[in-house]
Amino acid sequence: MKKVLKVILGIILSVVLVLGLLYGLFIYMIKYHVETVAKESYYEYEVVMQSVGAPLFFSSADGRLLLKKNDTIINKMDFTLSDDGGSIREDVWSVSWYKDHVGVVIQGTEQDDTLYNLYYNGKTNSSVVNGQDEITTKGDMANNNADEIRKELKMVADYLHYDDIKYGISAKGWMYATVYNKDGITRDLNYYETHEHEYVYEETKNGTTIVLGFYKIENGQVVDEHTTAWH
Known about the structure:
Distance between the termini: 87 Å
Mean pLDDT: 82
Order of helices and strands: HEEEEEEEEHHEEEEEE
Structural class: alpha+beta
Number of strands: 14
Helix content: 10-25%
Low-confidence stretches: 131-144
Shape: elongated
Strand content: 35-45%
Largest sheet: 10 strands, mixed
């Protein structure tokens, strides 16, 4: 009889132990598990988006943005995604690189688009973006002539012999032009925000962006600066 009781007690303890382990694993997965879901590089910098835990049913999801320089974390921000129970994934973010920071827009079906700025000096800020019209009137773009920038982007694209141009607005509010987007390679012309009438020609492939050249407008003409170095 004692042996039977010991066997039964052993079985009960084993079941309790297994259930406890499963419960602990469940709590870890929905609250603490960290997974990298997307990353983009820009020279020695890299921005990483991570999921923290997992949404339960239709709840919001927690995420984290890391800014690295030469594989060392120099900045980070936490965020929450409200997307009808959707998880943190690559198609909810868009990334724009600038001379002093990276801007990341997070989009969810149950929230306003939110811009997170992570600066190379450790500073951070965030703001709600309510559509493209508002972006074009905010921040740096507020004091610039969008029509003039669009015209100059077209001039540089023509100079580089591109005729299929698609215009867009970056997370910070600057107009840019995509001049090539094939076979996993994208080439953009971006307004050089600290230099008037100057544009950066960049190529992105496999998440890595390189500068192909700098061009400026002088006396109504496109001038090739023959450099790929930031200045």
